[in-house]
Specification:
about 100 residues, mainly alpha, about 0% strand
Amino acid sequence: MEALTTSAINVQVDTQDKEKATNILKMLGLNMSTYINMAIKQLIYTEEIPFRVKKPKNNAELLEALEESEVILKELKDGKRKGYDNMEDLIKSLEE
C-alpha cells in the first residue's frame, strides 16, 4: 500500500465565520481539517459541490436599508433631497 502524502491549504476566512464553524464542528465531534477533507473527498467522489449553493435570504436589516434607499431615490427624484454628482460639490455643501 502506498504511503499517504498530504499538502497544506492556506485559506483566508472571516474571523467570525471561522469561530462559528469551529464551534458547530466541535459539537459534531469534528475539526476544521476533517471537515475540509470530507468536503474535498465528496467533491472528488461525486464530481459535484457536496452541498446546496443558494442565495441567502434577505435579513431584516437589509430589507430596511433597501426600503430606505427607495425613499431616498424618490426624494431625489421629487426634488425633496439634494444629490451630488461629485465629491467636490458634496464637500462644498458640507462646509456651508
